[in-house]
Amino acid sequence: MNDHTEPAAVRARGIVKSFGTGDTKVTVLNGIDLDIYLGEMLLLVGESGGGKTTLLSAIAGILDIDEGDIDVLGVPLSELPAGKRTTFRGQTMGFVYQQFNLLPTLTAVENVAVPLLIQKIGRTEALRRARVMLDRVGLGDRAEFLPKNLSGGQQQRVAIARALVNEPRLLICDEPTAALDGPNGQKIMEILREVGRSPSRSVIVVTHDSRIFHFGDRMAHLTDGRIVSIEPITREGTA
Amino acid sequence: MNYIALKMLFGDRAKYLMLLCGLTFAVMLIVQQGSIFWGLMIWSQSSISNINVPIWVTDPGIAQVDEVKPIAGTAVDRVRSVPGVEWAVPLFKGLLRARLSNGEYHQITLAGLESSSLIGRPAEVLEGRFEDILQPDAVALDQWAVERMGGPDIIKVGTIFELNDKLARVVAIAKTQKSFTNIPVVYTTYERAIHYMPAERRTLSYVLAKAKDGVPVEEVTRRIHEQTGLGAFTADEFGWKTIGWVLKNTGIGINFGTTILLGFIVGMAISGQTFYLFTVENLRQFGALKAMGASTFTLARMILLQAFTVGLTGYGVGIGLATVFGYLTARGGGLPFVETWQLLLLVLVGLLAICTFSALISIVKLARLEPAIVFR
Q1: Terminal CA-to-CA distance of chain B, rounded, Å?
Q2: How far is Cα B134 from Cα B171, in angstroms, rounded to an integer?
Q3: Which residue of A164, A205, B109, B185 could cross-link A173, Cys pair, CB 3.0 to 4.6 Å?
Q4: H or E element that contains B134
């Protein structure tokens, strides 16, 4: 399925997840096998309702699966108690959402500092590191702005800075460009590629946006709860 | 995370102010009504506090201090003979009408004090000399008599009026605690009080007594009761007995209790609903915090911090407003308003209960929140 020889950062086997019971039961993930490697950006694409977001939630450990195993950085998520899973997630993962999910009453720099504050890092140090990260996404001069005073693209850059500030090994992005126009979407992906990618980090991007396909290394197609193909992406944007 | 919690709270100014207003209103209402209620209770036993003696001996069937049931005149000597009694003196108390020189009638409470000691006299005299009631036809009034009987131009030291067609001359005006019924009190000697009243077989209203030093007052009241068969109470016991009677026989307790309960419910409803809305509207953000590694415990702590911060702020502002209200309206004894630390403590406990309840609704919601909501 791939040419990688190193251990996968994410190793998913036989993932099954259903919602509802009886006649209303819907199987959203139906036997998913997937490896995601350090240093790569994997695009997860497919039709709406195909299970992309559910798979993302399962990999992030915020949704329990019915069957199968998911190892993240060698740690079997299903064996971790809920509390330890939360801590593990906070220490190893960063999230970028379609709707940004910034706290509206916090400034940009304070929003970026949130994951560090959750990790009980002192406020002064957290804010210092948050400023550095804001500089890296080109928003150093907007550090004290509230989200409502930032454009959509700027808000997503703040969200990226927030996702990266604690140096996560796994960056999970759910439709990061869906709420943005074309140029802003490109800009966000450039930032994700330049700032987010690292040899010691995997980046998973769920997207519908074919204009950003060329930013990925591999693309997994999900249809009806199954991965129908995983292909490398050429720099021209075609798989 | 405390920093984030407070920024979330203060940043949403509209909701913060709504929460603050709700809790402030609840605290103000409870403190104001509670203070007026307690003020009324203090007034209801002012006959006891104004006399200010440690032991009251009464008819055994007495219900409250203003319901006088005369006892035999021998009771004074019987009480004096009880071991542990330092002294015992008679007190007359009765209702009479005063007729002023302008022809107006006013109902008064006549208090007759034992003439050699004047035990039971008010502690503070505003005009004249209280001891002058020993002079012929002399009486002293409380300051409420001046107010109720026509004001200082009509009622002052030297004023002459009639009690049961007998002459009474004002020699002093004393400061006392206002009474529940606000009937003016006319003080004179025990003998003259009986002289003023229509003839009755029994004239002794109460025996006032004091325990010897070193003998517990409760022990002495018990002995008096056992040896004389009369009712014997410490001033505190008699006060509480009177308060109990007022609560049982008037609608005051239910009325004020209802208002206080309403304040509590309104405060709880407003803060609970606003807090819940606040949480629901920030659900995605809380979900994001959960996804980023914040535990439910951490979020619960944030919610509790927010609830107690706004609660304690509302507590301070509410008490401040109630106190200002009390100061402005109770000046000069116009309104019974007694703000006690016990009431403030009780309100604080109630408020913390409101805040905890409000926070708990939100915490339950957050505990059930799946962080996966952020991907929807």
Answers
A1: 25
A2: 10
A3: A205
A4: none
Q: Report d(CA B346, CA B299) in Å as an integer.
A: 28
User: How far is residue A46 from each of residues A49, A185, B270, measured CA to CA in Å?
Assistant: 8, 19, 46
Q: Are B190 and B110 in contact (CB under 8 A)?
A: no
Residue B242 is inside which H or E element, if any?
helix B235-249
Strands in chain B per DSSP E: 55-58, 85-99, 105-113, 124-128, 138-142, 160-163, 166-175, 185-189, 206-211, 231-234
Rounded Cα–Cα distance for residues B242 and B82 (Å)? 25
Question: Alpha-carbon distance B277 to A73, whole Å?
Answer: 39
CB-CB neighbors (< 8 A) of B291 in chain A: 60, 62, 89, 95
CA atoms within 13 A on the CB side of A129: 17
CB A192 within 8 A of CB A215: yes
CA atoms within 13 A on the CB side of A63: 24
Kindly give the parts of chain B with pLDDT less than 50.
Answer: none
User: Contacts of residue B15 in chain A, CB cutoff 8 Å?
Assistant: none
Rounded to 5 degrees, what angle do the CA atoms A131, A137, A139 make?
Answer: 60
The domains of chain A, with CATH numbers, are 39-51+81-232 (3.40.50.300)
Nearby residues of A46 by Cβ (< 8 Å), 6 or more positions away: A52, A221, A222, A223
Contacts for B172 with CB less than 8 Å, ≥ 6 apart: B125, B127, B128, B129, B130, B132, B133, B140, B141, B157
Q: Nearest CA of chain B to the CA of A230: how many Å?
A: 23
Which residues does chain A have within 8 Å of residue B302's beta carbon, measured at their own beta carbons? none
User: For B9, left (φ over 0), alpha (ψ -120 to 50), or beta?
Assistant: alpha
Q: Closest chain A residue to B284 measured between Cα atoms?
A: A101
pLDDT value, residue B181: 80
Answer whether B285 sits within 8 Å of A174, measured CB to CB. Answer: no
CA dihedral A128, A133, A139, A143 (to 10 degrees): -30
How many angstroms away from the CA of A123 is the closest CA of chain B?
Answer: 8
Q: What is the pLDDT of residues B108-124, one digit of tens each?
A: 999 999 999 999 999 89
Q: Is the CB of B235 inside 8 Å of chain A's CB atoms? A: no
For chain A, 239 residues long, the average pLDDT of each consecutive 10-residue run is 66 91 86 90 87 88 89 88 86 87 91 92 94 89 93 89 90 84 80 80 88 88 89 66
| CA–CA separation, B209 and B53 (whole Å) | 7
Amino acid making up residue B373:
I
pLDDT of residue A1: 42
Q: Which two tokens stand for residue A230?
A: 């995983």
- CA end-to-end distance (rounded Å), chain A: 14
Identify the H or E element spanning A95: strand A93-96
Taking only the tens place, the pLDDT of each residue in B78-108 is: 999 999 999 999 999 999 999 998 999 999 9
Tokens matching residue B119: 């035990």
CA B266 to chain centroid, in Å, comes to 24
- The closest alpha carbon to A103, from A159, A52, A48, A63, belongs to A159
- Count other Cβ atoms within 10 Å, centred on residue B365: 15
User: CB-based burial of residue A201 (10 Å sphere; 0-12 exposed, 13-18 middle, 19+ buried)?
Assistant: buried
